[in-house]
Amino acid sequence: MAQTQQQLTLTAIAIQRYQLANHRLTPTLSSLVPRFLSSMPRDRMDGGELHYRPLADGTFSLYSVGINLTDDGGDESAGSADSPMLLLGEGKDFVWPMAASPKQAAELLLRARY
User: Fold this and answer.
1) Tens of pLDDT along 93-110?
2) What CATH number did the domain enclosing 104 receive?
3) Other beta carbons within 10 Å of 52
4) The pTM is what?
């Protein structure tokens, strides 16, 4: 799991560097190679590529499949009650955390007051 977190972190940094250099998100992870990454980022869980998609709001989704080795589409929700993922506090997929948007942060603050 530590290797997965490391791979997600390195890839997220490369995506941010690409965005700073090009004023837009990378359309694909392959666009990061070789300038921002030396090779295609691998999903350490299933041996494939990490899962990435730019989103309409200017953020991106980046994740690895979880312990169930199934691409759940970046699902952060906990698995079944007997799943080891629940014990780890992780979702079905290992999802790179995105910062809350200003709107999301304001909504969270409002909810916290009640």
Assistant:
1) 888 886 677 887 888 888
2) 3.30.700
3) 22
4) 0.75
